[in-house]
Amino acid sequence: MKGKSEMSAEKETHQADRIPDHDYDGIQEYDNRLPNWRLWTLLGTIVFFVGYWLVFHTYGIAKNHLGARGLTEADLVAMSSNQDVLAEGKAVYAQYCQVCHLAEGQGLVGPNLTDVYWINGGSAVDIHDTIVNGVVEKGMVAWGRQLGPDRVDAVTAHLLTMRGTNVVGGKPPQGELYESAPEALLEGAAETEGAATETAASTE
Ligand code: HEC
After folding, report:
1. Shortest-distance atom of ligand 1 to CA 113
2. Which of 25, 115, 137, 175 could staple 119 via S-S, CB 3.0–4.6 A?
3. CA of 145 to the centre of ligand 1 (A)
4. Is 47 inside any structural domain?
5. Are residues 174 and 110 in the same domain?
6. Mean predicted lDDT score pLDDT of the chain
């Protein structure tokens, strides 16, 4: 047992617990100051939030959907003539995509990838988005998380080399005609990221 004087000395150094008057069905609550570690954790998350918002949403330095890095139409088209990227894309395609789209992209469960008709848009950016996000309700998997950005980019590049090759014996066309954007437009798109979205939008 502590003596009375000892207890009041303790109270001077540690602030006594405060209990406000109100009670809810007999339940009362303390109204104490947050411990420092919790206060700093809270402030830390607020600071993190501001940084995250600026990076992902305001400046779009990294796109907020998985597997995408804000590549433009021109970036993706350029990748489709890089042999290293294509080799990887081909391997990814054989491992993950061939079952439904067949070896040359003729189409089986999934649509023909060698014609110029696209259900979800035929620009490089559209194709990339379809691969990242999938069309889950129609049986096309969202590959962004599983493959990660490098392999998604590579397989997109590979698909761009199939686009318009019209492999014999392919599935009949589905979707809408997509004619590739003229080179001049693509070069313009390389300069400003926003233009790539416009390019994609104007071809829909
Ligand atoms: C389980 C079967 C299946 C697998 C595996 C699959 N797909 Fe698909 N894919 C589909 C189906 C079904 C559709 C049609 C979606 C629709 O109707 O919008 C589709 C559509 C697409 C489209 C859009 C075609 C268009 O006309 O808009 C692209 C691009 C595509 N797939 C790429 C891929 C890639 C790349 C892979 C491998 C990483 C892959 N798919 C793996 C079933 C599959």
Report:
1. 24
2. 175
3. 15
4. yes
5. yes
6. 83
Residue 108 Cβ contacting ligand 1 at under 6 Å: no
**Residue at 66 is within a domain:** no
Share of the chain above pLDDT 90, in %: 58
The tens digit of pLDDT for each residue in 145-193 reads: 899 999 999 999 999 999 999 999 999 999 999 987 555 455 554 454 4
pLDDT at 9 over 60: no
The reply to whether 25 falls in a domain is yes
The overall pTM is greater than 0.70: no
Q: Which long-range contacts (CB under 8 A, 24 or more apart) does 69-73 make?
A: 69/149, 69/153, 70/193, 71/125, 71/128, 71/153, 72/125, 72/189, 72/190, 72/193, 72/195, 72/196, 73/123, 73/124, 73/125, 73/181, 73/186, 73/189, 73/196, 73/199, 73/200
Q: Is residue 116 within 6 Å of ligand 1 at its C-beta? A: no
pLDDT at 58: 75
Q: Are residues 102 and 51 part of one domain?
A: no
Q: Are residues 88 and 38 in the same domain?
A: no
CA of 110 to the centre of ligand 1 (A): 5
Judge whether 155 lies within some domain.
yes
